[in-house]
UniProtKB/TrEMBL annotation:
Residues 23-142 form the Gfo/Idh/MocA-like oxidoreductase N-terminal domain. SUPFAM superfamilies: Glyceraldehyde-3-phosphate dehydrogenase-like, C-terminal domain (SSF55347), NAD(P)-binding Rossmann-fold domains (SSF51735). One of its GO terms (molecular function) is oxidoreductase activity. It comes from Herbiconiux sp. A18JL235. The keyword Oxidoreductase applies. Belongs to the Gfo/Idh/MocA family. Coiled coil: none annotated. This is Gfo/Idh/MocA family protein.
Length: 366
């Protein structure tokens, strides 16, 4: 085998923290805020000055855990606090838009970080995008899988040309999410609340797709009514890249004495190489990647490693890009203008389910 003359790309699984000076007020005291957002902010040294939730006692308990100086009785009180520059929301998507609008109206609020999905449907997401632009405020959406270490390294490999032109990609999930109780009141489940991670990551890697075809069946474990349990989507991206996203939220029996094999794996094949990896969430281990390139590794498999995790370390990157956008006055990497394109992809998936056909993204006016 000939020796490659192309240097291996420098791989950076985690972000550099450029800015950490802008004061954060957190709305929500559930698991995602208490165990992920705030754990990440503590590791990064981001200043959290206030917290509020639907239940003040819960907010107070989380404040004591992280040394947050101010507990507000309601989210509205927190939004009105002039000490808060960035409002970080972890609330259900039917209630989130009203809080975003309150925050956009406050002169002291410079940015809002919202959860995904941004809203229950595309029309509401587009309205929020336009209202944020009219207010001259930063609105960012927490698509945190873009900051998973394996996905970041994969993006760097693609950008370096180590895999050549991408041909085929797949994200394959067989694991049971913790469905939050508020989801029982919606008619949309997996595509909007789990596939949104994977479809957004595919957009991050390959650009905006031209079409999506989505098929579903009910999940036998989920007892409340739902349209989309197990989900399989095929997508076509620029350069004729074909992609497959599988969200098997059944994953086999989950009961005492049954040894499951839950996982999330991904694979990308290109004209010059192949990369595959895992997302560490179901196992609690760091995500992983291995790749081989005929131009960068002489066809040998290389396995970079790191000690950080998707949860909570990816949330450092999410808030860091908001902090830096506030500092510089530029657009955040996870901008609402970009996120509405992921929302359109979700909407197209639901249209594909309903009409049993491939749906072109050009059918949606953005």
């Amino acid at each position: 085998m000939t020796t490659s003359t192309t240097a291996r790309p420098e791989l950076r699984p985690d972000v550099d923290i450029r800015t950490r000076s802008h004061r954060i007020g957190c709305i929500g005291a559930g698991a995602i805020m208490a165990d992920q957002h705030l754990a990440a902010y503590q590791l990064a040294g981001f200043p959290v000055v206030a917290i509020a939730s639907r239940t003040e006692a819960n907010a107070r308990a989380v404040a004591e855990r992280y040394g947050i100086p101010t507990v507000h009785g309601t989210p509205s009180e927190l939004i009105a606090d002039p000490e808060v520059e960035i409002v970080d929301i972890a609330f259900p998507p039917d209630q989130q838009p009203a809080l975003i609008r309150e925050a956009l109206a406050q002169p002291h609020v410079k940015a809002v970080l919202a959860q995904k999905p941004l809203a229950l449907d595309l029309d509401e997401a587009l309205a929020l995008r336009d209202e944020a632009a009219a207010a001259g405020k930063i609105l960012s959406v927490n698509q945190n899988m873009r900051y998973d270490q394996s996905i970041r390294v994969l993006k760097q490999l693609l950008d370096s040309g180590a895999l050549g032109e991408p041909v085929f990609a797949q994200i394959d999930m067989h694991a049971v999410p913790h469905w939050q109780g508020f989801l029982e009141g919606y008619d949309r489940l997996t595509l909007a609340n789990m596939s949104v991670h994977h479809l957004d990551a595919l957009r991050y890697l390959f650009g905006d797709p031209s079409e999506i075809t989505t098929v579903v069946r009910e999940d036998p474990r989920t007892t409340f009514e739902h349209e989309d349990g197990i989900v399989v989507s095929t997508l076509r991206f620029p350069g004729d890249v074909l992609a497959l996203s599988v969200e098997d939220v059944w994953g086999g029996p989950r009961e005492e004495g049954y040894d499951d094999d839950f996982f999330i794996r991904w694979r990308v094949e290109g004209t010059a190489g192949v990369a595959n990896g895992t997302i560490g969430w179901p196992t609690g281990e760091p995500s992983s990647i291995r790749y081989a390139s005929r131009t960068h590794t002489d066809g040998e498999w290389v396995s970079p490693s790191w000690d950080t995790h998707w949860f909570p370390h990816a949330f450092i990157g999410v808030m860091e890009q908001v902090q830096h956008a506030v500092e510089t006055g530029g657009a955040p990497e996870l901008s609402v203008a970009d996120n509405v394109k992921t929302m359109a992809l979700i909407e197209a998936g639901y249209r594909s389910i309903a009409e049993k056909r491939p749906v072109q993204l050009s059918e949606f006016a953005l």
